[in-house]
Design brief:
With 121 residues, this protein is α+β, with helices and mostly antiparallel strands. It has helices at residues 4-13, 67-108; strands at residues 35-44, 47-54, 60-66. Strands 1-2-3 form a three-stranded antiparallel sheet.
Length: 121
Amino acid sequence: MTSPDSNWLSRALGRNKRPADDDLHHCAACGKDYVNPVNWEPVTPEAWWMQLRCGECETYREVTVTNKVAERFDVELDRRADLIHRALHKLDRERMVQQVETMIGALRHGLIEPADFARPA
């Protein structure tokens, strides 16, 4: 049995909030914004059927939405993909800088020499 205090806390933290029907990127079960489309297809010229999956709690749901809602979801997915791409680019650049600095340090300290890069005969 839940106490009134825990219900208040859940409401305050937004745990009992269901996302709006056009808020596809938020999970209806856990509320996280890790929802991605798994399958989709047009059902009419003005609407799409989508199967969505939450990456946090692995909940699936099916929705039918208007083209306008689908377009907003697509823009949100593109925005998130861009964030991931930028983070990956930053991490990759940091990794490459570290590798170059390691190579420079090894060269300066005589730990490697041209023969280390010779092709085997």
